[in-house]
Amino acid sequence: MTAKPGPAPEQKNLSDFGLFMIYFAVLMVMWLLLSGHYDLKYVMYGVLTCAFGAGVGVRTFRLPIRGDGRQMQIAARPLVFFKLLVYCGWLIYQIILANIQVAFVILNPGLPIEPQIIRFRLRFENPIAVFVLANSITLTPGTITLDVEGDVFTVHALIGSAAAEWQEVAAGKPNVMIRRIAGLFGEPALPGRAEGMV
Hints:
Number of strands: 4
Strand order of the largest sheet: 2-3-1-4
Structural class: alpha+beta
Radius of gyration: 21 Å
Helix content: 55-70%
Strand content: 5-15%
Largest sheet: 4 strands, antiparallel
Shape: globular
């Protein structure tokens, strides 16, 4: 009778430890790449800081985040690490392309900008998916996420091509970014027009 409760906490701790090691490894690699200091003192600072960050991450990503009576955990649907890396690589490539595109617009004497504000609806259950989408839009030059209220995204687009892409999203056609993030988090990619879209 008393032997059965034992394995359950052990399994949970093992899972938490695995998550901790993944977070720690990712943070430590970032630290080493960005710091440029490899003396023992600085590496130890990195180890302590990354261990603290990984520990906070394991606990934070398991907190319930719904206050409407439902219990949902951010880490209930764990990400496939490889898919996340592929998405980050794709996003960096898009940032480079968008930077070049915006640079051409700025250097053009006619300054052919067409600023527009687009609103669209997109329901993601996982708030991390909302966070990733909003920040991915902002990280891509020429577009900024102005606001996310409930399932309504408000996006400012500087140039016509970016505006056209997000207008298609507002018309109900998910673009590549939305499809990739939806696939990453196991969410449906079904955008729709928001009321009062300008």
